[in-house]
User: What shape does this take?
Amino acid sequence: MNQTKRMNIVCWADKGGVGKTTLATNLALALGAPLLDLDPQGDAARWAENRRLAVSRLNTPEAVQKALRQKGTRVADCPPGQGEVALSAIALADLLIIPSKTGDADMVALLRAFELARKVQTVRPLRVGLVLNLARETGRAKGVEAALRAQAGNDFMWLGKLGARVSVEDAYATGKGLLQVGGAVAHEFRQILAAVESIVSTDSTHSTESYESVQLGGPS
Amino acid sequence: MTKAKAAETAALSLLGVGTREQGTRMPTWAPEDTRVKPRQMNIQLTPEGLAMLQEAQVKCLQKGVCRASFRGVVLEVVLKEWLEAQ
Assistant: This one.
């Protein structure tokens, strides 16, 4: 993991219960990156403590901004919604990973998330990755997956999907990583991990002179 | 201030971090009437998008494709139009 450049991997969604913590904790573990728990619920911190992994709990925009301006790679688990802590992390993210389920309400939340990411992208680079979580094998869910994959491209990257499995919940409860669970769960997570590693290793952000133009202040 | 730092400041400002209006913490770009409740996406399809949806619906019905697959088509059209409108 390159510690001379900055890479903020932020897991966020506008809706709760879609798998932000599952993704953030497992990515931090697999990448060997520090984990930041920005959610007042503290689920990521609890999981990390079960594994005796270092985790930082941050609950103010100032603390988040200070942490995300450091060099090195880190993974942040955000609270859902558009509170100041989450927005601070999104504004300073280099890779924004948005997990989503396949329900109608999830799709509405997903479009809100893309809209927010677009706002940040008007002033600084931000890569956006999508993970379909708790994906079931119904026709509807497969239709949604196909539609999202078809739209993946410059605006967002398809990172992969995690199926709806009891073993994922069990892994979380016992402080295990998804790679330790093995089987289909590990296989799916490996694909997501490979996509994230590819982005992290090829991203050349944060040369301080990489921006062509900047607009300061005020809403759009 | 470096360009990168300026861009980060701009992003924080765009998202309304650190700004407060009338005691609320909604992003400053949110319209007035949405500041007390979550904003809902309201996507208006173009005539072309609507025609695509109607054509897809007819094809789905003709082939006996289930509604689940049609929902996937709906999402694809809506996403595509929204992305192109940005």
Summary: Residues 19-42 of chain B have pLDDT under 50 and may be disordered. The two ends of chain B are 29 Å apart (CA to CA). The helical segments of chain B are 3-14, 47-63, 67-85.
